């Protein structure tokens, strides 16, 4: 059940009211701090599993299995001798990754092997799977695996309360599409007493409102244009394809950043603070800077559990470049079982290697030079998104080639929709430009009455211009 569905917004007020009306004490023999939160945690687990089951009930068993494996696995690792832990962590990590590998990568591996063997005239046939991928499996698998690694590296103590840990893995605002939380951030919040705070609630509603605007008005409206062009790109001229690629960059940002903000907003209304996944990524001056601002929780996960364990930057120059390459190769594979995602990851990895070799990753820029670097970075990111969006490598290469096949004025598929595109992009650009470059400018916008006027206008724009069809989130399939 997605945040932009009417059913969720009918159900969530009930969840909110019941959650905050639940008694703080369960009447058991726990200490004072534990008595205050146990009923609410149990309620959130129930809600999380019911919302997950609303998509496909049988797949809640996968969520539960990963929770059980990592909970008992972490306790087992903590209680065993040092020399036995490597074998234990390898075995547990393999078991945890099996569902992800089977559901997400079985068909990809099967088809790749079939194509390879067919090219040398060898007969090979293994039936593919027609099962739908469990929604959010990559996110909750990585979150649980990160916790297990933290216990293994002695960064965290193994959690004793199964209820608290089960909520950590299944917490419904983030289980479908992240952000990927660390145990050190979320588990303490699960354990502590939660009291409704007015200011936190207001912040949550602001996040929800802006997240809905990014998703419904920016992303979903741009998606109408992108889908139309991509489906039959050979029939459109080059400038239209270029505009569609730019629009897709904005669409995927609005879609994913919108979801993340809604997740943060819902969590705040329940008394939790989740990591903000985005920090104005399209104002990045390099690809390295881009990954400090885009999908921050995944970037951090890859750095902590892939890049650093391989040696990070504390090694030879060429080994460091290899570590960067492998990390972004893993990022591409994580995003999906398709060669297009792998190439997308390779583009980002190679770009970062070049930046590091030239020292651009540490070079500060101001004025015109900063603007040039922002434009170049956005162009590289947009090129990579073409591979991310297209169904096959052949389509991606053909799309890029076709984009430079002619020159002229891009086609406008609908004047009304195009007006909405311009309005939505202008609002997002103004808001993020002010935050990035002029945080102290336009102070009149901080006035209380002006802010209320802004909220009303944004709400009206969502109702009037938003694509209110409960469109799925792009990252929900990951």
Automatic annotation (TrEMBL):
PANTHER family: ACYLTRANSFERASE, PROTEIN-CYSTEINE N-PALMITOYLTRANSFERASE RASP. This is MBOAT family protein. It comes from the Bacteria. The keyword Acyltransferase applies. InterPro entries: Ac/AlaTfrase_AlgI/DltB (IPR024194), AlgI (IPR028362), MB_O-acyltransferase (IPR051085), MBOAT_fam (IPR004299). The chain crosses the membrane at residues 6-23, 58-77, 89-109, 129-150, 256-275, 318-335, 371-388, 408-431, 452-475. It is a multi-pass membrane protein. Keywords: Acyltransferase, Cell membrane, Membrane, Transferase, Transmembrane, Transmembrane helix. Pfam families: MBOAT (PF03062). The keyword Transferase applies. Its main location: membrane. Belongs to the membrane-bound acyltransferase family. It is found in: Cell membrane.
């Amino acid at each position: 059940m997605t945040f932009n569905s009417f059913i969720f917004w009918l159900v969530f007020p009930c969840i909110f009211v019941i959650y905050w009306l639940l008694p703080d004490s369960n009447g058991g023999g726990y200490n004072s701090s534990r008595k205050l939160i146990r009923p609410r945690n149990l309620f959130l687990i129930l809600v999380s599993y019911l919302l997950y089951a609303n998509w496909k009930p049988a797949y809640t068993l996968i969520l539960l299995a990963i929770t059980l494996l990592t909970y008992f696995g972490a306790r087992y690792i903590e209680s065993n001798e040092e020399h036995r832990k490597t074998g234990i962590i390898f075995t547990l990590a393999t078991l945890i990754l099996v569902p992800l590998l089977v559901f997400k990568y079985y068909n990809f591996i099967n088809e790749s092997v079939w194509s390879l063997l067919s090219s040398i005239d060898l007969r090979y046939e293994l039936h593919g799977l027609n099962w739908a991928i469990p929604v959010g499996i990559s996110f909750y698998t990585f979150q649980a695996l990160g916790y297990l690694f933290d216990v293994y590296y002695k960064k965290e103590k193994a959690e004793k309360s199964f209820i608290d840990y089960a909520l950590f893995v299944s917490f419904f605002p983030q289980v479908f599409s992240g952000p990927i939380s660390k145990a050190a951030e979320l588990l303490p919040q699960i354990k502590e007493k939660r009291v409704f705070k007015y200011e936190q609630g207001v912040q949550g509603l602001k996040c929800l409102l802006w997240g809905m605007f990014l998703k419904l008005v920016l992303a979903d409206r741009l998606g109408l244009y992108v889908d139309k062009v991509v489906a039959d790109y050979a029939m459109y001229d080059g400038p239209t394809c270029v505009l569609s690629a730019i629009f897709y960059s904005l669409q995927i940002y609005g879609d994913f950043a919108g979801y993340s903000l809604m997740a943060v907003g819902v969590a705040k209304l329940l008394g939790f603070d989740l990591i903000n996944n985005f920090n104005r990524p399209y104002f990045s001056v390099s690809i390295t800077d881009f990954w400090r601002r885009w999908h921050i929780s995944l970037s951090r996960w890859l750095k902590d559990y892939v890049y650093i364990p391989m040696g990070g930057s504390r090694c030879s120059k060429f080994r460091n470049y290899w570590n960067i390459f492998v990390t972004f190769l893993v990022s591409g594979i994580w995003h999906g079982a398709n060669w297009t995602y792998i190439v997308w990851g390779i583009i980002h990895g190679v770009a970062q290697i070049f930046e590091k070799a030239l020292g651009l990753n540490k070079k500060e820029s101001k004025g015109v030079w900063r603007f040039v670097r922002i434009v170049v970075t956005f162009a590289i990111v947009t090129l990579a998104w073409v591979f991310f969006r297209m169904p096959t490598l052949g389509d991606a290469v053909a799309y890029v080639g076709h984009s430079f096949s002619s020159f002229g004025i891009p086609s406008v598929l609908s004047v009304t929709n195009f007006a909405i595109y311009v309005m939505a992009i202008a609002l997002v650009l103004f808001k993020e430009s002010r935050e990035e470059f002029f945080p102290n400018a336009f102070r009149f916008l901080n006035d209380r009455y002006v802010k209320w006027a802004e909220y009303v206008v944004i709400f009206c724009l969502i109702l009037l211009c938003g694509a209110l069809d409960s469109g799925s989130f792009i990252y929900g399939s990951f």
